[in-house]
Amino acid sequence: MFQSRKLINPRSYQPSLPVPKGYSKAGILDSLVSVSISGSATGELRDYATADCERFLHTLDLVPQDAEGRMLEIGANPYFTTLLMRRFRPALALDLVNFFGPEAVDRAQEVVFRNFEGVEERTTFDFLNLNIEADALPYPDDHFDHIIFCEVLEHLTIDPLRAVMELKRVLKPDGCMVLTTPNAVRLENVIAFIEGRNIYDPYSAYGPHGRHNREYTRHELHQLMEHAGFRIEVSYTGNVHDDIGSAQASARIVNAAIQAQKSREHDLGQYLFTRWRNTPAGNAKLPRWLYRSYSEDRMA
């Protein structure tokens, strides 16, 4: 199936890059790298936008073009996805949540950027500062039509099921949740293990929430979401930038291992891109494959 001397390319097994009609990736990126938040522009933001621009476009595409109603975005800062939703899904009213720690007092941030039409723009995003693992969302049941829960799950430290169940509570029946998270078994991680390199995230100056505390495989993500009462609509893995590592040196070994497992080639992308529907059934008991050392009455 795979050329023995050439490493398999995860991009061969993912959808083509979805770019809004009349725009280009280069034009979208030009806007995102211009973002300045509350008067500061950092190289870190520019690097982030440049590395993950394709991820933001895949995320945008997971939200139906005719989406309307209320949308909740968890972890909105630095507002790249927020800006795309505001421009290309204009029928959605956005509520934003960030978590800057329990001592944070700011509830609004000014964003200055060169918009997608090339015009400098200033906008202020109001947000709630809360910890989705521990705090109750201040919304009634069945309040939102859509939720974006992207690049947050891997940062949770204590109780990811609690976070998912709280999002389920405020999402309308049959409401839509877009969830993206790094793929624990992405190709670059497979290569790292073969070459004797570590895959764990470095410690962060932003504290425990600034690093990846637990990444998921595609199968694990499906297990978690189905346990919480969600039905899958879209699921694929995808690369959004070049893989890290001396890939070609391990090509024969990696390709042989992938060939030995049915359909493994579809699970090698850097990110898990998914869209879910909120179905009635959900189980608040803790799944045993993900939790341990809890009292028996809390375990599923």
Detailed description of the structure:
The protein is of the alpha/beta class and 300 residues long. α2 crosses α3. The strands form two sheets. Strands 6-3-2-7-8-10-9 form a seven-stranded mixed β-sheet, sandwiched between helices. The protein has a three-stranded antiparallel β-sheet with strand order 1-4-5, covered by helices on one side. It is built from seven helices and ten strands. InterPro entries: SAM-dependent_MTases_sf. Keywords: Methyltransferase, Transferase. It comes from Pseudoxanthomonas gei.
Topology (elements, then pairings):
Blueprint: H1 25-32, E1 36-37, H2 43-62, E2 69-74, H3 80-88, E3 92-98, E4 108-114, E5 120-126, E6 128-129, E7 144-150, H4 160-170, E8 171-182, H5 187-194, H6 218-227, E9 230-238, H7 251-259, E10 271-278
Parallel strand pairs: 2-3, 2-7, 3-6, 7-8
Antiparallel strand pairs: 1-4, 4-5, 8-10, 9-10
Protein name: Class I SAM-dependent methyltransferase
Pfam family, one: Methyltransf_23
Organism: Pseudoxanthomonas gei
Please report the distance between the alpha carbons of the first and last residues.
41 Å
Could you name the CATH topology? Rossmann fold
**CATH domain class name:** Alpha Beta
How many helices does DSSP assign? 7
The CATH superfamily turns out to be: Vaccinia Virus protein VP39
Q: Which ranges are low-confidence, i.e. pLDDT below 50, for 5 or more consecutive residues? A: none
Mean pLDDT: 94
Give the overall form.
globular
H/E series, N to C?
Answer: HEHEHEEEEEHEHHEHE
The strands making up the biggest β-sheet line up spatially as: 6-3-2-7-8-10-9
Total strands: the figure is 10
Number of folding domains? 1
Protein name: Class I SAM-dependent methyltransferase
GO molecular function: methyltransferase activity
Keywords: Methyltransferase, Transferase
GO biological process, one term: methylation
